[in-house]
Amino acid sequence: MGCMGVSGIIGKQGNETFNKGRIMNAAFKEALKLFTFHCCIFHDVDLIPEDDRNMYSCPEFPRHLSVAIDEMEYRCS
């Protein structure tokens, strides 16, 4: 199985409401024009898993890879 990464940095401009979900959906639609996926993993650049045992994989059901982070004293939000 191959592994591929597509990344981008998006920031808010102007006074419009920032809709992260809309941007992720648009990015996914554009990526589908270039590649065939059986799995897609989204995360913020500051939520990269800290534990190497936390594998990027494609289980049957969605899961959150960074449920507890140092910035929040390892508590769920």
TrEMBL record:
PANTHER family: BETA-1,4-GALACTOSYLTRANSFERASE, BETA-1,4-N-ACETYLGALACTOSAMINYLTRANSFERASE. It comes from Octopus vulgaris (Common octopus). InterPro entries: Galactosyl_T, Galactosyl_T_N, Nucleotide-diphossugar_trans. One of its GO terms (biological process) is glycosphingolipid biosynthetic process. Pfam families: Glyco_transf_7N. Gene3D superfamilies: Spore Coat Polysaccharide Biosynthesis Protein SpsA, Chain A (3.90.550.10). This is Beta-1,4-N-acetylgalactosaminyltransferase bre-4-like. GO terms for cellular component: Golgi apparatus; membrane. Coiled coil: none annotated. Residues 9-59 form the Galactosyltransferase N-terminal domain.
